[in-house]
Amino acid sequence: MADRDDTKAPLLPLRERIQTSRFPLRSLLTGKYLFIILGPLACMLIFFFVDLDGRSSSRNMLAVLSWVFLWWLTEAVPMAVTSMSPLFLFPLFGISTADAVAKAYMDDVIALVLGSFILALAIEHYNIHRRLALNITSLFCGDPLNPPLLLLGLCGTTAFVSMWIHNTAAAVMMIPVATGIIQRFPDEDSLSSDVKKYFKAVILGVIYSASIGGMSTLTGTGVNLILVGMWGSYFPDEEPISFSSWFLFGFPLALLLFFILWGILCLFYCSKNTAKALSAYLDRNHLKRELDLLGPMAFAEKMVLAVFGSLIVLWMTRSLTNDLPGWGALFHDNVGDGTVSVMMATLLFIIPNKKNEGEKLMDWNKCKKLQWNIILLLGAGFAIADGVRTSGLADVLSAALGFLKAAPYLAIAPLVCLVSSSITEFTSNNSTTTLVVPLLIELAESMGVHPLLLMVPGAIGSQFAFLLPTGTPSNAMGFTAGHIEIKDMIKTGLTLKIAAIATLTLLMPTLGPYVFGTNKKL
Description:
This protein is mainly α. It has two domains: 34-102, no CATH class; 108-516, no CATH class. It is built from 26 helices and no strands. The chain has helices at 14-20, 25-28, 31-49, 56-74, 79-84, 86-92, 98-103, 108-125, 128-141, 147-164, 167-182, 193-214, 222-234, 243-269, 274-279, 284-294, 299-317, 337-347, 372-391, 393-397, 409-423, 429-447, 452-461, 473-480, 486-507, 512-516. Helix 4 packs antiparallel against helix 19, helix 9 runs antiparallel to helix 10 and helix 13 (222-234) packs parallel to helix 22.
């Protein structure tokens, strides 16, 4: 066969050659390729064409921020990968040294998360979460069936679980429980409108309770950890926010919001005929049968619960009050919440599970599901906060929030919360906190008020993402489970958001000074 003479082959038009090539050019300009390009493109445009009064370091930080947040917002690359980008962007743009930015990815807050995740994996491995959910839910089912009470049980279980593990993980655990109850019913097309409305309440209750419960404790959500990390980073000489001190503020807030949520759900989705419509398909026996299938609690489950309970007690008692110091004073306050978290997680690799010879409660193979993406995201948040401060960008951006300077003292918290809760509907809670809190710190200093007076409403407000499925992973999981529409989320979420801002407005000037000392100046 003669060799092919490509020089004599007719040339295809340029458009056809692009369309038939293995890596078509148009694919680079559509979909995720476009979003990948947008990050560095925005960075370069700011770097070359933006002038912040001659502040090159502030301009460089803004350029890097645009790259990172565009990738976070569009998920052009995995979020965990984007979270690692400050490790190379900061040194390249002269914002920070490689050693300095790397240290932001491992501190006591990160250690707290790491230990908590290992404990959460142990709870999941031994099915403790399901046993707990079924026990509490069956307790609230009622006989005869009481739909509002059952809803209270589902929401209460979700909120309680979310207090001790990440709210996303709590939603992952509880949505199958909620949908399992719904699956007891026949085809949805044949159900009455009262039953369908109650299904909406069940799903909405789980996803919103996961967010609300996570506000109670430092481990419930990454936002609280970011806030605590930034407080320690910006004000290292001030009293740190401990697990117990945050609980004194976060738990009353979450408790009030929880009952407000329950009241909204009962008002919108429970009618007089709901109990009658549900009773034919759902009763306490269903939950008891599922619980019986789990069998009696084994030694391993009891030990994991004992370790988990001990961890909570140690967290709560490490630092109490100035007059009554916690056990941390015995170690000259050198220990942190992360110290305790990792120490108790280590016990899981030492205590035998009494199932098989030589096996422990946990081994490293079970830790392959560790949520490194959350850990890296937190590290990136701390690195960005440091960069915004040291580069001087915080001074520049805080001017955009200058309108708050003219606000009355009691109006500061609701205004900050409103701004933060609006931004968070379109970006992740953690991203919103990472961006807004450093600006609020600079603004508080220029206003002459306590920084936590702005930081706390800004961080908590970023957790009020109740309107859209994309607001939080919990919202997305609930939406994909079915039975709810966007209009249901907007109707319920908007009411809840307004009530949440009002509740935070009430607590900041009353409970805030007692817990955080916001009535004082630093």
